Amino acid sequence: MTDTNGVSTNAVSNNGAPDAFIGAVRIADITQEMQTAYLDYAMSVIVARALPDVRDGLKPVHRRILYAMWHDLSLTHDKPHKKSARIVGEVLGKYHPHGDAAVYDAMVRMAQPFSLRYPLIDGQGNFGSIDGDNAAAMRYTEARLARIADLMLEDLEKDTVDWHDNFDNTLREPDILPAALPNLLINGSSGIAVGMATNIPPHNLGEVVDALAYMIDHYDHVDAITTEALMRFIKGPDFPTGGILYRYREENKGEEEADAIAQGYSVGKSRLILQAKAHFEEISRGRTRIVITELPYQTNKTALLERIADLVRDGKIEGIGDLRDESDRTGMRIVVELTRGADPKAVLADLFRYTPLQQTFGMQLLALVDGQPRLLSLKRMLQLFIQHRQEIIRRRSEFDLKKAKERAHIVEGLLRALDILDEVIQTIRRSQTVETARNNLMHNFKFTELQAQAILDMQLRRLAALERKKLQEEYKELKQRIAYLEDLLANPQKVLGVIKEELLAIKQEFGDARRTQIVDRTKGTLTTTDLLPDQRVWVSLSKNGDLRRQAVSKPSASIVRQVGKDSQVALLTASTRDYLCVFSKDGRCSRIGVHEIPEEGSKKVADLTGFTGRDAITAALALPRERNGDEAGFIFLVTEQGIVKRVRTEDVQSNTGSEFTVIKVEEGDRLLWVFRTQGEQEVILVSAQGQSIRFSEEEVRSMGLPAGGVGGMKLKPNDRIVYAGAVDPTGELLTVTRAGFAKRSPLADYSAQGRNGGGIVTHKVTDKTGEVAAALVLPTKSESDWLVFVTARGVAKPMLAVEVPAMGRGVQGKALVELSSQDAIVAVWRIESVKGEKSEEQRAESEASRTPIARTRSTTERSTAERSTTKRSATDGETVPLASPHPAGSGVKSGGSVNKTTGDKKSTSTADKKKPADVDQQPSEARTPSPPTLKERKKKAAPPLQTPEVQTPEEAAPLAFEFIEQVPEVQPGKGGKSGRGKSKLSAVVSVPEAQIKTKKKPKA
Quick one: 542 and 439 in the same domain? Predict the structure, then answer.
């Protein structure tokens, strides 16, 4: 400082030396000082607070939380949870000198599945919700590391990263985490620094790993890799809350559309349009509701509902009659009831325009690279992660090599000592002290100090011959390990191979399906597909290529006749949003939107696809349009001559061609069976001569679409495959011959073997029974399901699955189907009964009890819901293939089993006439080898049906007759006011008696 005379003075310490820190006063220009101090503060915020490191994708607070949980508290995924307050205190006291709220908030976010695509912390307790609810106080919640977080910290103890002192120089903490996980891309990051901000969206782990593997494979020419090449694997961001992401963005009216995703990946910044996922549901004539099932990322559901209510109250959005939140643990469901006559498209467009159902996500790929903030492209981010892993593996290998050499050196000394054991023991015994013994060993036998110490530390039990052998084996393994590590360190290409191998293992364990749907359009261009209701329908495909569909919610007695008449190739359950893949006999595939198939009448496959009328369509399979959880697994293809092939489901889903080849079929063969598997299942093939083979699907490696197949079963001359399907380990195999001899046998009796064998006897074939015509895997507890046997003349013969006798594997079965001399069985279908599923009416009432909002439903909707209860099975959307429904050489086969419908009450057999009319309402029975007696079936009482509200006689009459068909006939002597039959009838019919035809009861 200066005195009054302008003479400069400095603070001086006791020893006379200037002290710059204690008592120093310095005159400085305030402008310059403000600039310098602010820059120091800005860099501190940028480097040590707000921006993530490109290598591990973490900010310092997140890194310290994970490190403290792993190193200090040992809270790995296999340990019990501990109080969050304990974790926060550990982080604050040792590594992060800031507020406890900041640490706890950061920890909470890492545990929220709606904030992070792959949460790093496994929380127990209230960690907040998508409704905007705050997490409980840290004294109430508990946490531990998630299993995937182990990948962030693995090898940290192997000197793989640099370290620095903590804030008080008492402990050490890592500069970075080893991070085998590409965390920055898969979980994203957001933060506001000083003069800059980052907003990195989350991505799908499987897609990122595939892109990294591609880059590693082409690392010698990494400069030639383009963003377009990487986008073949990384389609775009994948948000934890799903939603719809528009690929294109219109910059200005009239200008060319810009690929917003490609722009963000190329230059590091872009504006993405996110939108909620919604569809329409018809609830009555003239009334519709909008159902929202997914929200844009970081949208507060409660605030959204309040915003919609305010807009309706202010009159800015018209046509909304009711708004309710029906979300539960099974998923999100926001229902917007529209008034009668309101235009659903217009209302939904207004919701997108005025509410957070549609919003912009500003992509900003900003991260720290060598401590400096850098705006990165997708390619650069992937490249920096690979470089990070190269460094980690190099340092890890050097550490392991050093340890291996040290251990090998010691083991070598122990082995030498065992060779001269007597001299070593004598030397040690003659030594006065341990130090003398060590020096004598080193001097007399040329042992190193480490070897000499190890010899002195060796226990007497190591002198046994077996222990010597163990040392020799250990030394051999150590030498191999050393050679491997030295070779790895000398060969950078092998390091890249290790990185790729580890990444693929991570994908195998933690990879999942994409959640966010990417739409190749600009915002606001809604299509019919976007607004289709998710309606379950039956889809039938005939031998002539006729396609039909019928809503599952509208079953009728004629469904059995339709199965026999119009479903020779396929009959399956699908959603109106699904694709129907149809396959020709020569292995070609084409896709059809299920909603394009007419409900009334039929349409030719040739009119909807690239196939012609001359192409024989032999199989069909429903696949979801959106590649979500259903895309996991494979598609299994089987030909008539026993050739099998397995392709990835994603390969078929992602193929945009109007027609493409899925398998190369040889001359004289036909593709007949197409079904889905999960990757670790077993499949079974059945032949016409009664043989079958069961083997693991993993014996058939996944192949590309145009390739041919491999042998699945060796067939005898003139034999052919009549069925192929996935095995239910606890289920049964139904087989039926052309003469109608059928049986059920446990699949446990069919042991698995290698593929391409001759198989084992499944059904004894004789001249009396005829060859096996069809087979079918019956899942566990399918006794109350319907079986429909279809004859060559198109006659459908229904039967309960329990009525087919359970027999051994190699017997001929029992004649169950009465046939004329010129007729034969050609196919069998399973129609799943509906058990325990709530109807639409029951679900609505359950929701009403949860949300006190009045609901009004039409008579038509109520009665429809009461008459049929639908449920989507675990195998929805797949054809469960059956046997060929046609004689050999006819060129057509059946396509699959049916999951559910009602049976036809007008059966030709005596037993069928005595069956209860409504199988859907019968309780499940135990599996028995013989069918129930007539007396037993009569004792079964169907639960009372709810009374439909009838508005007009015209509406009531057909409704009443349809319900009467489902009520057991009133038996003499069982009527009266308390009679069982009378009470049934009165519960069903609430229309004038003149409109109902019933039998007169005889006098008692």
Answer: no
- How many Å is the maximal CA-CA distance in the chain? 134
Residue 852 maps to a domain: no
Q: Which of 827, 784, 748 is nearest to 920 (CA)?
A: 784
Sole residue written with tokens 């090898």: 155
Please indicate, yes or no, whether residues 766 and 793 belong to a single structural domain of this protein: yes
Let me know if 475 is a catalytic residue. Answer: no
Contact 889, 862 (CB under 8 A): no
Q: Which residues make beta-bridge pairs with 726?
A: 683
- The single residue of 38, 41, 140, 750 carrying the catalytic annotation is 140
Which CATH number do you get for residue 717?
2.120.10.90
653 and 607, same structural domain?
A: yes
Tell me what pLDDT residue 256 has: 59
Range of the domain at 782: 536-834+870-921
How far apart CA 223 and CA 389 sit, in angstroms, is: 19
Residue by residue, DSSP assigns 573-637 as EEETTSEEEEEETTSEEEEEEGGGS-SSS-EEHHHHSS--TTS-EEEEEEE-SS-SGGG-SEEEE
SS (H, E, C) 174-239: ECCCCCCCCHHHHHCEEEECCCCEEEECCCCHHHHHHHHHHHHHCHHHHHHCCHHHHCCCCCCCCC
Calculate the CA 490 to chain-centre distance. Answer: 40
Beta-bridge partner residues of 675: 636
Q: Which two tokens stand for residue 760?
A: 């084992």
Write the CATH number for 329.
3.30.1360.40
Beta-ladder partners of 174: 163
Distance, CA of 756 to CA of 685 (rounded, Å): 10
Quote the tokens at residue 91: 């982080």
Does 398 lie in the same domain as 347? no
Residue 921, pLDDT score: 37
The whole-number mean pLDDT for each consecutive block of 10 residues of the chain, a chain of 1004 residues, reads 44 48 78 86 83 95 97 95 97 94 96 96 96 95 96 95 94 96 96 91 96 95 94 95 87 67 94 92 81 94 95 93 91 92 89 93 95 95 97 97 96 92 91 92 92 90 82 95 96 95 95 90 58 73 83 56 68 84 92 83 84 88 70 86 93 82 92 91 94 94 90 93 92 92 93 92 92 91 79 79 89 87 83 51 39 30 36 38 37 38 38 38 38 42 39 35 34 40 34 39 44
**CB-count exposure of residue 688 (10 Å: 0-12, 13-18, 19+):** buried
pTM assigned to the model: 0.59
Q: How far is CA 269 from CA 183, 197, 787, in A?
A: 19, 11, 59
